Amino acid sequence: MSSADLAFVNGTVYTVDAARTREQAVAVRDGRIVAVGSDDAIREHVGPRSQVFDLAGRMLLPGFQDAHVHPVGGGVERLQCDLHDLHSREDYLLRVKTYAEEHPHREWILGGGWSMDVFPGGIPTKDLLDAVVPDRIVFLPNRDGHSTWVNSRALEMAGVTATTPDPADGLIERDGAGEPSGTLHEGAAELVGRLAPEPTPDEVYEGLLEGQRYLHSLGITAWQDAIVSTGYWMDNYSAYLRAAGNGDLTARVVGALWWDRERGEDQIDDLLELRERGRTERFAASTVKIMQDGVCETFTAAVLEPYLDAEGRVTDKRGISFVEPEALKGYVTALDGHGFQVHFHALAERAVREALDAIEAALETNGPTDNRHHLAHIQVVHPDDVPRFRELRAVANAQPLWAMHEGQMDDLTIPFLGEPRWRWQYPFGSLVRAGANLAMGSDWSVSSPDPLEEISVAVNRKTPPTYLYGNDNHEVFLPEERLDLATSIAAFTMGSAHVNHLDEVTGSIEVGKFADVAVVDRDLFAHPVDEIASAQVDATFVQGASVYARDGTS
Ligand SMILES: [Zn+2]
């Protein structure tokens, strides 16, 4: 028996195999797991040239896989005027001012990541920005990317005035006199945004590497990039191929190619070409992303019954189905027939139903496939649709961090969804009990990409102690929808590996699989569940190679 290159010993190995086995140690050779067992058994694999990693009582887990994330945009933002780590008006303005001063030659101040609950009614105004940057353009999307804060210079330059009509797919916030007040929702942001300089290919590439570094530091070894394209937003497709080609891509990535809703089935040829060209060892552009609706806070998420207004009266707003539901059935059937996985943004109950109906139509026409279509966000699911996930083998792709009481939920969502619908939010427990396949992801840079924070909320359904956007409502959010720790870890490892079609080679610690693993600083099962978010990742490995070490030894 030739000896191991690497052995993890003296810890708790939580394997996430079918039996949820716990062991003490793991041996790795040529990037693959060759043995899992007791310390004594693994020591037999250790030779003079083996590197031995002393877990010292810590926990070894399969690397986390984020099933819905935007790491390139997130990385680019981290390198721009990034507001994600702040949470007050004063701090935002100070950061914008400082950034503008430090980058005197940038005509555009780009970045973003502000939080709606910092501002009255969720709406910041242009005068705040004017006071710190009067002479250059400021254009800052919020942390969910659906609303953008701009200054007067930005509106002026784009010619957005009191007489500018709202675009069909968006809304311009206005003051009492009808003047644009400084927040642009959804498509309205494009009135300014379309004039912004695209990040250069090198900036996109640096963004990818920054995003990758950051995700590795959180124990993430693979992900599904929820929007990959050669042009919409930014050319992250080429950045992935470049990184894959020169060995800089250390993560495993599935790319969800953007479905352009201005076009129809004729784009499928282009998608096939991108899939063909985008097939490398670590990167596969094998998925198509269809954005079916918006978000609740701006009433663009597609609902079955209309939203309420702030006084609880029924409005005429039902949100937007970005793709007409009958057309959606046709597109999904065609994509499924070509072997594409479809990754839906399906947030409220009408969009969820439309996505499930489309999957059902594909199933009827094409018969069962192994494409593993999935619905991301699933914020509001009508109870009648919960069992359909299992029936249709549609994967529930959950972003658990949003399933708690916080400003955005309590002030901007619950009152407008009303009874009983607000109770249909994030029904993870119900989905699991109904036999749905569950995957998990963060939607970073919309919210924190830390899987331990997300798992903490999946288990506790309340604000983790580490949560930046703190609040004083510590009530458990719909307690019957809580998941246990084992189920949550499985969703973030095997569940997401399933959706990424990586479950045969990753997602659990089993002999023959790649040694894609994360070292967590404690046995999560041995501590109270409200401490999950306080745990930290100490080291991350992909194929047996170190990609992150908290103590800097990587
Ligand atoms: Zn997203």
Task: Give the topology, please.
Elements: E1 6-9, E2 12-14, E3 22-23, E4 25-29, E5 32-37, H1 39-43, E6 51-54, E7 59-62, E8 64-69, H2 71-78, E9 81-82, H3 89-102, E10 108-112, H4 126-132, E11 137-141, E12 147-150, H5 152-158, E13 170-174, E14 180-186, H6 190-193, H7 201-216, E15 220-228, H8 236-245, E16 252-258, H9 268-277, E17 283-291, H10 325-337, E18 341-346, H11 349-366, E19 374-377, H12 388-391, E20 395-398, H13 407-410, H14 414-417, H15 428-433, E21 438-440, H16 451-460, H17 485-499, E22 517-520, E23 537-542, E24 545-549
Parallel strand pairs: 1-6, 2-7, 8-15, 9-10, 10-11, 15-16, 16-17, 17-18, 18-19, 19-20, 20-21
Antiparallel strand pairs: 1-4, 2-3, 4-5, 7-22, 11-12, 12-14, 13-14, 22-23, 23-24
Bound molecules: zinc ion.
**What is the rounded Rg?**
23 Å
The small molecules bound here are:
zinc ion
Largest beta sheet: strand ordering: 8-15-16-17-18-19-20-21
Oligomer: single chain
- Which structural class do the helices and strands define? alpha/beta
State the distance separating the first and last CA atoms.
28 Å
Q: Give the overall shape.
A: globular
Average pLDDT number: 95
* Percent of sequence in beta strands: 15-25%
Contiguous uncertain segments of 5+ residues: none
Q: How many separate helices?
A: 17
Query: Sheet bearing the most strands, described?
Result: 8 strands, parallel
Helix content estimate: 25-40%
Number of β-strand runs: 24
Explain the overall architecture.
This protein has 554 residues and is α/β, with parallel strands linked by helices. Helices cover 28% and strands 21% of the residues. It is built from 17 helices and 24 strands. It has an 8-stranded parallel beta sheet with strand order 8-15-16-17-18-19-20-21. A 6-stranded mixed beta sheet has the order 3-2-7-22-23-24, with no helix packed on it. It has a 6-stranded mixed beta sheet with strand order 9-10-11-12-14-13. Strand 11 (137-141) and strand 12 (147-150) form a beta hairpin. Helix 7 packs across helix 8 and helix 10 packs across helix 11 (349-366). The model has no long low-confidence stretch (mean pLDDT 95). Zinc ion is lined by residues 68, 70, 226, 443. Zinc ion binds at residues 68, 70, 226, 443.
